[in-house]
Write a structure and sequence with these properties.
The protein has about 200 residues and is an alpha+beta fold. It contains 6 helices and 6 strands, in the order H-H-H-H-H-H-E-E-E-E-E-E. About 40% of the residues lie in helices and about 15% in strands.
């Protein structure tokens, strides 16, 4: 995603993002035939995640950021409503906001760049909006991993146990366990039979 200079102030841009009407996008995302089949609750969560993604780009225009898979899919659906997307971009940023779909696909260095962009975004999300929240409202430690290509959050519940959940409706639950002590150092999670690693970056994340 790239932006050029705009006459809008940061405060005006953020206010426009927060006021963005995403009801048509959420409706389409809940459809099974030509959408993603998400529940209304999950579509709302992704709408909020998408707004946070846009806010981060407004606040950190020079940073390369990569969202989780479903936030990116929500963005794709917004783009497909071409007239609305163009109008929304103008109202928010004063210009068209382009999407670059090739990051991570052009070899090992590019794949690392994608991972770095994802990690950078997770760090900024925690910094700007606080720790991620479990769907039931429990605060999570800032750990994440990718399970079979899906973003998964891993949370340390105690020094001896942890849990994680795959952020994808209808997928199997993931499980995880702390590898080392203290518990804020590392954890791992997996959906059988494939394993994935996740690490808590900081004790205060």
């Amino acid at each position: 995603m790239t932006t050029a200079s705009s006459s809008k102030t940061l405060e005006q841009t953020i206010a426009a993002i927060e006021a963005l009407d995403l009801e048509p996008i959420k409706f389409k995302a809940t459809r099974g035939e030509d959408g993603y089949g998400w529940s209304p609750e999950y579509a709302e969560r992704m709408a909020q995640a998408y707004k946070r993604y846009l806010i981060l780009h407004a606040k950190y225009p020079d940073a390369t950021l990569a969202p989780d898979q479903d936030t990116d899919r929500f963005w794709h659906m917004h783009i497909l409503d071409t007239r609305k997307y163009a109008a929304d971009c103008e109202a928010i940023f004063g210009e068209f906001l382009h999407h670059f779909p090739y990051l991570g696909l052009r070899g090992e260095d590019d794949a690392k760049a994608l991972n770095d962009a994802f990690a950078k975004m997770q760090a900024l999300l925690a910094q700007e909006f606080g720790p991620a929240q479990h769907p039931e409202g429990a605060t999570q430690a800032a750990a994440w991993c990718a399970v079979e290509g899906k973003a998964a959050w891993c949370a340390v519940e105690s020094k001896k146990a942890a849990w994680c959940a795959v952020e994808q409706p209808g997928s199997r639950a993931a499980w995880c366990a702390v590898e080392s002590k203290p518990a804020d150092k590392a954890a791992w999670c997996a959906v059988e039979p494939k394993a994935a690693w996740c690490a808590v970056e900081t004790a205060k994340a």
